[in-house]
Amino acid sequence: MTTVFQHRYAYLIGVQDYRFVNKLETPLQDTQAVSSALSKYGFTSKRYDNPDRAEIEVLLAELATLPDPETSQLVFYFAGHGKGVEVSDGEGQHQSVQGYVLPVDAEPGALETTAISMQAIAGAVSALRFPQVLLILDCCYAGMFRQATSRFRDMLDDAEAPLKKIKLEEFDYYTRYQARQVYTSTAYNQKALDSYQSGSTTPVQNPISPFAEVLCQALNDPATVDNRDGVITIAELQTYIHRRLSGLAGGQQHEQNTCVFTLPEHEGGEFVFLTESFDYTNLESLGDAQNPYKGLQSYEPKDAALFCGRDQAVRDLRERCAKFSEHPLQVVVGASGSGKSSLVKAGVVPHLSPKPLIIRPGLDPLASLAAVPTPEGAPPVLVVDQLEELVTQADNRRDATLIPTFFKTLFELYEQKKVSGILGTLRIEFVDPLKKAVEGLRTGGWQQYPVPVLDVDDLQDIIITPALRMGWFYYPERSLVARIIREFRLYPNALPLLSLTLDDLFRRCAGRKDRTIKEEDFVEIGAVLKGKEADLKAVTTASGVAISDEFRQNLLRRFVTFQNGEYVRRRVTAGELLFDPAQNEARRALLEFLARNRLINEVKQSGPQAEFREGPARTGRRMGHRCRR
Questions:
Q1: How many distinct helices (H) and strands (E) make up the chain?
Q2: What do you get for the CA distance between the two ends of the chain, in Å?
C-alpha cells in the first residue's frame, strides 16, 4: 500500500453507565467494534470508556497536540446519549435548540455545566491542522450538530450516490484540500436505537447498536463498498449504510436516517478510508476534460446526467405526467431564461417511457402536428417546446383560428391515442391568449406548472454537481461557490448568464491537470464580462468597416422585444438579419463577434430560417438599453 497519510488517529468515546440518566446497553461494545474495523485501515485507536466531562475536555485539548497533524487523518467517534435543549437569547425573545453529547456525569437539569455542547466539539475540531477530520456521532439528535456549523453542500439525509471507481484527479483533490465532515446516525429530530431485536422467535439483544453494526459491516466489506479501487469515501459509506440502517430501524417501527454534512473549515476535500490493497499508482486518470456546462444551449435528454438543481420540479412534473388521463395537457410556464425547456427535456423526458416525441410549433404549427406518427406500440408523450412560437413566429394574424385549431388538433391526437399526453413549455407573458383558446375548447383543459424560483441549495447543485460528475472541483469550494451565488441569486432570470459564466470558467481552466476552478478565475471572468460590451463597439474598428450607432441599434434590437414593460430575449432567424448589401460586411462582423463571445448562440440550419438564438438575460437588457439610445 502506498503511504498517503503519515498517521491515522482514531479517538473513540463510549458512554453507557450513566450516573444520573438512563443507562445504555451497547456504547462500550460499539467503540470496541469500530476500533477493530478502523484498524484494518491503519488507524491507531484510543478508546475512552464512560468518561466524565472533565476527561472529555482533556481529550479535546489533546487532539491539538498530536504529532504530524499536517500529514495525518483523525476520526472522532462518540456513542452515548445526545440531547437537545431549548435556549433563548437571554431576553426570552429568540428560541433555538442547542445540541449536547452527554458524558457519564451529565445531569439532566444542568447540561450547560455538566455536558459537552456540540458547538464546543465543532470549535475544538476547527482549530486542528489535520487535512482530513471525520466526526462520527451515534446518539440521539446527532443531526443537531448541523446547527453548530454553517450548512453547505450537505449530502441529503437519504442520498445514495451511484458507486464508481475513484479516478486519479478526484483522489488528488480529495486529499489536497481540507476535509471537515460530520457523519451522524440520526437526523436533528430523531432518536438513535441503542439495540434491536433480532427477529427470531427468541428475542436476543444485539451486542452493538444498529448504526455501529452497519458501519462496521461497511468497513469490513470493502469489496462491496469501494468498488475495487481501494478507496472508501464518505459518500460510498452513506450509500451502503443508509438503506440498511433504515431497514433495521423500520423493522422496529422506528425512523432513523444518517446525515452527512460539513464544518465551516471544509475546503471541498473528502475523507477517505484506504484499504490494504490501495495503490496510488493504480488509479486511472479521468482522461480528456469534458465541459460539464452548456453555456447558452438548452439541455437535451442526452444531457440528463449534467442537469442539476431541479429535483423537486422534476418530481412534480413526473407526478403530473402520471395523471395525463385526468388532464392531458400540462404546460410548464416561466419567464424568459428560467430554464423551462431544459427542465422538460433533460429533467422529465429521460424518465418517460416510451421515448417522448419533441416538436416545436415553428412557422407552420399545424404541419408540425401533422408529422406526428401513429405509434406502433404504446403511445408516447408529446412534448411541445416553445409554445410561444404560436404567437411570435406563426402567422396567426392572417388566420385568427390558428391557435384554437392547433390545440384542437393536439387534443385529437390524444383522443386518437397517438400520444398519451401533452407536455408544453411557454413563456409566461403568452399565457393569456393560449389559455383562452384551450379553455374555449375544454373547460379546465389548461393546466400549468410555474417553474419554481431557484434557492441556494438549487444553485449549489447547478454549480457543483455537474463539475463533480466530470471530475472537476471548485477551490476554495465554500467561498467560491458562495461568491458565485451572491452574484447571481437575486438577479432576475439570471440563469442564462450564470450558465454562460460557468461555461467561461470551465473553458478558462480546461487545460489544468488538477481540474480545479479557482476563485481568481471567477474574478477574472467578471472583468471579461464587463469588457465585452466595450469590445462589441470596438469590433467595428477591427473589422475596418464603418458601423454607425444607428445600424448597431437596428441590428441589436432584432434580438430583444419589449413586453410587459421590459426587454426580453427572442430567437431571430437569419432572414430577419438581411440588410442593404452595403451593410452586409458590418452585419457579418457584429454577428461573428457576438457568436464568438457566446453572447448569442448560433444554430446552423439550411436556408433563410437558420437561427441566431438569443443571448443571456443581462445581455438582452443591455441590448435593450442600446436600442433606446
A1: 21, 23
A2: 68
